[in-house]
Every structure is written in structure tokens, then in C-alpha cells.
Design brief:
alpha/beta
């Protein structure tokens, strides 16, 4: 989670919502990392989780991320949760819960839906205070006219 928090801070420095993610393999080695890049790249799919999973798939040489863990500072949205299911990620470790768009248990539970082709374990609240503080500071800065 430490590296994901660093990536989240880097996203904020670029004016993107501070979310960072890493994918680790079964041995705990980081094989993909990402941060929000929507604003920087003008890409609506530039979410930290998608960026990290793309990098991990390139590193593995295949789209299936079986045996991997996605570690992300904010609960994945429906798009990112769908990518978790599609790529067969078995575990999601998240920092802060997202009461507006979360899709790993708070608003929706896409990754554990019994009708799905794949279900993932969810471990939430890891370094939640730090992850939430990055988000609060970012949005307070935007509302107060201070660069995010």
C-alpha cells in the first residue's frame, strides 16, 4: 500500500484525483503500477487500477492476472471492478471505501457477485486514514482555489 499511496500523491501533483494502485504477483513482487491519469492524458479509462492491470498483463505476457493481488488506495469503481473480474484478479486490497462509486462492497459489489464468471476476495481499510486524507486534501484544495 505504501507504493500505491506514493503513486496517488503523484497523481494529485498532476491535477488528477489521488488514487494509486499496484499489482503484485503470488511472490509479492510488484509487476504493475498505476495512478489516475484521466486529466493528464485526457483518457476516461485512465484509472489507477486499469493502468496498473495493463502494466501487469504486459509483464506477465497475458491478460489473466490469476494469482495476483490488486492493491489500491480507493475502492474501485464499477469500471475498475469489472476489469478485476475480467482479468481474474483473485484479491483486492483497498485503502479508503468509496461511498459514492465503490463497487467492491460499499455501493455495489461487482467483484463478489455470485452471478459473475469470477469472484475476488476484498480486504478493505488498509491504511485507510492515509488514503482518505489524500482525497480530502485534494478536494478541499480544489474548493478553496488552491492548486490540487
Amino acid at each position: 500500500m505504501g507504493r500505491a499511496l506514493e503513486l496517488a500523491a503523484a497523481a494529485a501533483a498532476d491535477g488528477d484525483i489521488p488514487v494509486g494502485a499496484v499489482v503484485v504477483d503470488a511472490d509479492g513482487v510488484v509487476i504493475g503500477e498505476g495512478r489516475n491519469t484521466r486529466e493528464r492524458d485526457g483518457d476516461p479509462t485512465g484509472h489507477a487500477e486499469v493502468v496498473a492491470m495493463r502494466a501487469a498483463a504486459r509483464a506477465k505476457g497475458e491478460w489473466r492476472l490469476e494469482g495476483c493481488t490488486l492493491v489500491v488506495t480507493l475502492e474501485p469503481c464499477p469500471m475498475c471492478a469489472g476489469a478485476v473480474v475480467a482479468s481474474r484478479v483473485p484479491r483486492v486490497v483497498l485503502g479508503a471505501w468509496d461511498p459514492k462509486m465503490g463497487a467492491c462492497g460499499s455501493v455495489w459489489d461487482v467483484v463478489r457477485d455470485r452471478r459473475s464468471i469470477h469472484r475476488a476476495e476484498v480486504v478493505g481499510g488498509v491504511r485507510e486514514g492515509e488514503a482518505a486524507r489524500l482525497l480530502v486534501d485534494f478536494f478541499e484544495g480544489r474548493r478553496g482555489g488552491v492548486p490540487g
